[in-house]
Structure formats: C-alpha cells, structure tokens
Amino acid sequence: MTPEFAHSEERPLPKRASVVVIGGGVAGVSAALTLAQWKVPVVLCEKGRIAGEQSSRNWGWIRKQGRDLRELPLMIESQQLWRRFDEQLDEDIGLRTGGTTYLADNEKDLAGHADWLERAKDFQLDTRLLSRAETDAMLGQSEGRFVGALHTPSDIYAEPARAVPAVARLAAAAGAEIFEGTAVRSIETAGGQVSQVVTEHGSIACEAVVLAGGVWSRPFLENLGLSLPQLAVQSSAQRTTEAPLISNSTFGASGASIRRRVDGGYTVARSGAARFDLIPAAFRHFFAFTPVLKDRWRIVKLRLGKTYFGPLGSHRWQADEASPFEAVRIFDPAPDHQLLDSVLQAAKTLYPQLADVRPVERWGGMIDVMPDEIPVIGPVAKLPGLIMATGLSGHGFGLGPGVGHLAAQLATGRAPLVDPAPFRYERFGS
C-alpha cells in the first residue's frame, strides 16, 4: 500500500464527511476527485489498494465506438474528463489518441458495424466504415484478410495501472481523504436516511454514500437486505514483449484484440471470452442473465467449484464482525493460460508484426456484469442517501470518470451531466 493512502495510528479516520465513497477503482476515485474539486468533504475507503482489481486489469480502451447507445452520452463526457485529468496530472498515464478499429472477418460482421453506425448517427461521431483496402493499409498488410472495419479516429486509450492511481493522487491533492486497507462493513441509518458507514477501523458519519465496489457491490447490498442482479465474470489478458508499431489505433477482432502499450509491447486479449463461476447469486438471478448467456454461450465457460462458498457467495455479517471484504483484500484470480495461448497464437496470425512476441505477464480480473450490460448509477429509494455506481460490465475503465462524476452530482443534489434514467437501480424491479 502506498503511504499517502494507508490507514495508520498517525492518520486515523475522520469522524465525519459529507460523502463516503466505497471502492478505489476508476469510478470511486473519479467520484472522490469530483467531490474534492467542489470542496465537498469526502472520504474514500478501499478494502485493499487503489485500482487493485479490475480498474488496473482491463485493456485500457477509452472508446465511444460500439457502445450501447444508452451509454454514449455519458461516454462522450467521460472522454472529455479523461483528457481533463491528463492535463491536470504531472505524470504520463499513457493517454493517447489513436482511435478504435473493429475488424470485420466477413460481410455479416461488416453489416453489424454498419448497423451500429446508422443507429449512432444522431451523436455525430467521427466513426466511419473502412474498405478492405483501407483496412489493409491501416494494418500494414496486403492479404485482404478482413473485408473492412469500423473506425473512430478520436477514440483514446491509457495505461490503467498508471492512470487510476494517478487520478487518486489528484483527488488527494484536491482534498479527498483516501484510505487503503480500510473495508467498509456496513451502512447505518437514522430516520430512514444514511447516517454513517461502519469500517473495520471505526465509523464515519455522513449524509451520502457512493457505492463503487465493483463485484463486491452485490454482497454488500445483500447484507443490507437489498437485491442487485449483478454477477462476477472472470476475464484474462496478457502483455507481450516489445514489437513493431502496427498502428496507433487499438484493434478489435474475433480472434484477438490488441492495444499498443507505452512500453512498446501489446496488451492482447479476446472480447467476450470469460469464465462464469456458479455461485448462489447465479441461480437467484439466472433468468435475468439468460439473454446474455444465450448470446455468448460459445465463449463463456460455466464452472461449479469452490467459489460457490467463496467471498462472493452467500454471506451475512454484523457491523462489528469481519466481512468478506477483509478476508479478500484483492481479488487476484489466476489467468486462463489455455485461452491466452490460443489468443496469442491468433494475434500472431492476424497481425504478422507480432510473430515473434512472447508473453511477459498474464493476469485475471473480475468484471461486474449486469443483465443489460450497462451500469447502475443512481439513488436507491429504499435507502435514501445511498448512490450506486457499479455494474460497469466490462466497459468501466473508459466510462469510469463519467460514472464517478454523475454519482457525485446525484449524491450532492446537483444537476446531472446526462440523463441518469437509463442507469437507475429500480429498472430491475425490487
């Protein structure tokens, strides 16, 4: 843990804050930064370390292209926030404008890209379809392997492991009090309204709480008697040795997606390839997730194992008892090496410039997925003062600044930067 964020005897928790943020991922630190810049007293509590989980384990893409149209207004704002963060920082987070390119293996894929482009036309993006020849030119190839592509030149990307801690430092410099190694066990109320959070190191009185706990949000809410149809899906990714520059764009293809890294290597993974561990919540919310599983059954592995009884299983605890968040400070699942071997081989075939690369590091991560694959951002009617900022469904790194900003607005009664209705908690019923 970094000393600037660590809890210690010399730096006890404050007794009071206006807002407490639970979770030190991209959404949580963005909310804390927003609130601190507004001079709102804010405390962020992270059970492990800042960006210890999915916020440092993703691909680093910050894209408008291919988004669910309900997310697009917030994503457009998020890109501007990322650029603003980069301007305010005195360190390189790898933020680059290179574009996003989705490669089409066949005419059906290209038609799907064209359909999205037509539906997104009201947003006046700079996205366009590329011909076979234009795609070859971008890839530095001449084989005509792809029939075309969808390309958005203004899309950006960054290095997640650098970016999120840097934003947290920016938040701390603005006045946010950030504590690592500090699990929030529960929320207490007075008069039906949020009144304080109870952490492993003591309580903090507050008027509002932003829950940005990623995959941990569901068990946290269940312990409060609230339901959230959110499941954890494990993904795997890898980074390679240095290789020639293909393009400044990120590339998405069915076999392997790649992003050039500032270290000269590539982050290589496969979209939608994931493992879904069966836990009690999986059975409880099975029908809500049936459309997602049906759509992705070829690339999702279902598994019943010891995780059924693990930290994301069914647990209950009192505020004065140790919670699952203290039992697992950082969720660090083993990567799927068999999958990643396949992905790397596909990458070498699709992008011949990578023929000689080797994997340098591989990792797993847990993605908090909602049935409709868009986040939950907004108040919970049954617990006034609680603001949700979770369920980012694998889109969270790019979207995170907007999610945090919107959550901060809703927590303080400010006018929202976009219509929050598509993200409301109650859309799933009670």
Give a short summary of the structure:
The chain is α/β, with parallel strands linked by helices and 430 residues long.
Strand order of the largest sheet: 9-2-1-13-22-21
CATH architecture: 3-Layer(bba) Sandwich
What coarse outline follows from CA principal-axis ratios?
A: globular
What gyration radius follows from the Cα positions, in whole Å? 21 Å
How many beta-strand runs? 22
CATH topology: FAD/NAD(P)-binding domain
Number of helices: 12
Can you offer a commentary on this structure?
- The chain has a single domain, classed as FAD/NAD(P)-binding domain (3-Layer(bba) Sandwich).
- The protein is globular.
- The strands form five sheets. It has a six-stranded mixed β-sheet, with helices on one face.
- The two termini are 38 Å apart.
- The chain has 430 residues and is of the alpha/beta class.
- It has helices at 26-37, 54-57, 72-88, 107-119, 132-139, 160-174, 217-223, 280-284, 286-296, 324-327, 337-350, 396-412; strands at 19-22, 42-45, 61-62, 96-97, 100-104, 128-130, 148-152, 156-157, 177-179, 184-190, 193-199, 202-205, 208-211, 231-240, 250-252, 257-260, 266-269, 274-277, 300-303, 359-369, 376-379, 386-390.
What's the helix and strand layout?
Blueprint: E1 19-22, H1 26-37, E2 42-45, H2 54-57, E3 61-62, H3 72-88, E4 96-97, E5 100-104, H4 107-119, E6 128-130, H5 132-139, E7 148-152, E8 156-157, H6 160-174, E9 177-179, E10 184-190, E11 193-199, E12 202-205, E13 208-211, H7 217-223, E14 231-240, E15 250-252, E16 257-260, E17 266-269, E18 274-277, H8 280-284, H9 286-296, E19 300-303, H10 324-327, H11 337-350, E20 359-369, E21 376-379, E22 386-390, H12 396-412
Parallel strand pairs: 1-2, 1-13, 2-9, 5-15, 13-22, 18-19
Antiparallel strand pairs: 3-8, 4-8, 5-7, 6-7, 10-11, 11-12, 14-17, 14-18, 14-20, 16-17, 21-22
Helix pairs in contact: 1-6, 1-12, 3-12
